[in-house]
Amino acid sequence: MATKLKEKKPLHLAKMNIKKGDTVLIITGKDRGKEGTVSRALPQVNKVIIEGLNVVKKHIRPQGQTRQGGVIEKAMPIHVSNVMLKCTECHEPTRVGHDRRPIGADQKVRTVRVCKKCEKIIEDRTRSS
C-alpha cells in the first residue's frame, strides 16, 4: 500500500483561526449541520478534533497486559476548511477577522480575533483573563 504522506508545516509557520475550546459548526461532510467544541487543534496539518463528531470505529489489537483489544469509537481530525467558527457574542457561524485593539487591565494593544458579522471580539475559552 503506497500512500503519500502530506508534509507537516513547521510550527512557527502553522497558523489557524480556530483554537482549542472554540465552538464550531461543521459545514460539510457526514456530520454537516452539527456543532461541537474543539478538543484539539492540529495547526501543522490544518485539522481540528471536535468532541463527539466525525467519530469512526477503530479495531484495536490487545497490547499484552496493558491494553484490552476490541472495537472503540474515536473522534478523527477534520480539515479546518470544513468547519466554521461560531461567534461568542451573536452565536452565529462567522468568518474570522483580526484586529489590533487595546485589551486587558493595562490596555495594551494586542491582535485579537473578531467576528466579521458583529465586529465584536471572539473570546478565548482556553485563556482566563
Radius of gyration: 18 Å
Q: What structural category arises from helix and sheet content?
A: mainly beta
DSSP summary, beta strand count: 10
Q: What's the CATH architecture of the largest domain? A: Roll
Shape, please?
Answer: elongated
Task: Please give the alpha-carbon distance between the first and last residues.
Answer: 49 Å
What is the number of helical segments per DSSP (H or I, 4+ residues)? Answer: 0
Order of helices and strands: EEEEEEEEEE
Please tell me the total number of domains.
2
Overall average residue pLDDT: 87
Largest sheet at a glance?
6 strands, antiparallel
Strand content: 35-45%
Q: Helix amount, in percent?
A: under 10%
Strand order in the largest sheet = 6-3-2-1-7-8
CATH class of the largest domain: Mainly Beta
Poorly predicted runs: none
* CATH topology call of the largest domain: SH3 type barrels
In short:
The chain is mostly beta strands.
What does this protein structure show overall?
The chain folds into two domains: 79 residues, SH3 type barrels, CATH 2.30.30.30; 31 residues, no CATH class. 0% of the residues lie in helices and 40% in strands. The strands form three sheets. Strands 6-3-2-1-7-8 form a six-stranded antiparallel beta sheet, with no helix packed on it. The protein has a two-stranded antiparallel ribbon with strand order 4-5. The chain starts with 22 loop residues before the first strand and ends in a 14-residue tail after the last strand.
